[in-house]
């Protein structure tokens, strides 16, 4: 018979260190199970502390603990799209998506709960936390595009793509993590390129941004590869132009 995993030994910690330990234990559990399936006893056991100690740090109970864990996860997700302004745009987006998708992969079944609230009672605070992740990602993307005062069409395009990344991540989990992460990453970057090019046809600001971004790309990169695969398809429809 397989024995249960040993409970971590109790250690006296400072206030912030103990709070961080409890959040780490909660995030680990929420990454494996939906929040409604995780009890405070589960968190206490995972952290090697007593239930009253968990309540001492989170007197609001599981909802408060969940919101704190969600905020911690949100801070990590927000930083995924932070990238030095160096190299072609597609390379920066690829590195950002590598971090984002690694988070999705690591948290697996808990990603939906961590990002979308699961079936824990939704509040204005949890909604604001999740929306803050999307807005922060949008700001980082617009920074990559070197746009100080983005117009409506460009802002909408970026935010729609971020929504698409979230949806693709959830579908990827549902489909057993297929295709491979690197293929999913490149596909999502290509989706971004297609979206901004479509918007460029309607918006002069986006057109200028696209021209500047494409000027820094290389034939061997994602843009070149996408062009070589798409142009034959477009060529078949040349009579429509």
Under CATH, the topology is which? Tetracycline Repressor, domain 2
Q: Any low-confidence stretches, pLDDT <50, length ≥5?
A: none
Report the biggest beta sheet as strand number plus sense, adding barrel if it closes. Answer: none
Query: Would you identify the CATH H-level superfamily?
Result: Tetracycline Repressor, domain 2
Oligomer: single chain
Q: What would CATH call the architecture?
A: Orthogonal Bundle
CATH level-1 class = Mainly Alpha
What Rg do the Cα atoms give? Answer: 22 Å
* Percentage of residues in helical conformation: 55-70%
Number of strands: 0
Please work out how many helical segments DSSP would assign: 11
Proportion of strand residues: under 5%
**What is the domain total for the residues?**
1
Morphology call: elongated
Span between termini: 71 Å
Derived from helix and strand composition plus strand pairing, the structural class reads mainly alpha
